Each structure stands twice: as structure tokens, then as C-alpha cells.
Amino acid sequence: QRQLVESGGGLVQPGGSLKLSCAASGFTLNWYVIGWFRQAPGKEREEVSCISLSDSRTYYSDSVKGRFTISRDNDKNTVYLQMNSLKPDDTANYSCAAVPGHPLWSGRETVQTMCIPSTMNYWGKGTLVTVSS
């Protein structure tokens, strides 16, 4: 059974940092595009960042560019999201998701075009991040 499990969320003050983890089981992430998405209360789910596990190509939304960093550890079958300079607007439930990366390798898609919720096949349940003083 393919599963994604997030961890690392919590309460942090504005300006603080958190590191989220997305651990996969039941399948190997090497040939997937993995994304972090977030949903705040009353808002639609939005993309945060995505990474191609085969070649580390990345995409960041404008709202997090320069503050968040997505990374991978293929040996641990895990993707991370380092979040710095957190703002109250970053408060949300953060979920990771996965989709096979073959449209990327063929050049049909880019990491950015694949980094939308509707393309993802597998989802974790999420971890809550609250940024508040």
C-alpha cells in the first residue's frame, strides 16, 4: 500500500523556522514528482513547492520563494520542506503528494506545470503549521 506521511508541523512564532518531512512507504520516490501543498481555513488548497526526485528540478510558488527550500533524501525515501522567515499567512495544513514523473522526462511538462493539486495521485494526511505570536 502506497503511503505518504508528513511530520514536523507545530506552533512557531513569526520569523521562526520549521522543517517538514514527507516519508513514503510502499513505493520508491525516485521516479516521482513530489509536491508540498497547503490549505488554510476557508481557502482553497494551493501549491507551495515541488521537486523532481530523478534530477532535483524544483519549483516554488511566489509566496514562498526565497524563504522555503525543498530537498530530498532518496536513500531515506523522504522529501523535506525547510521553512524560514515564517509569517502568519503561512498558517495552514501542509500536505505532501506524489505523481509519476514521466511527463517531465519526455519534456511534455515542467515541474511548475505538474505542481498543481489536480495532477497528484497520492496524498498524505497533512501536518498543521501555525504561525502566531
Helix content: under 10%
Count of beta strands: 11
Largest β-sheet summary = 7 strands, mixed
Number of helices: 2
Structural class: mainly beta
Oligomer: single chain
Q: What is the percentage of strand-forming residues?
A: over 45%
Poorly predicted residue ranges: none
Mean pLDDT: 95
- Helix and strand run: EEEEEEEEEHHEE
User: What is the 3D form?
Assistant: globular
The value of Rg in angstroms is 14 Å
The separation of the N and C termini measures 40 Å
Descriptive account of the structure:
It is a single chain. This protein has 133 residues and is mainly β. It has helices at residues 102-105, 111-114; strands spanning 3-7, 10-12, 18-25, 32-39, 46-52, 58-60, 68-73, 78-83, 92-100, 122-123, 127-131. The strands form two sheets. Strands 2, 4, 5, 6, 9, 10 and 11 form a seven-stranded mixed sheet that branches. A four-stranded antiparallel sheet has the order 1-3-8-7, with no helix packed on it.
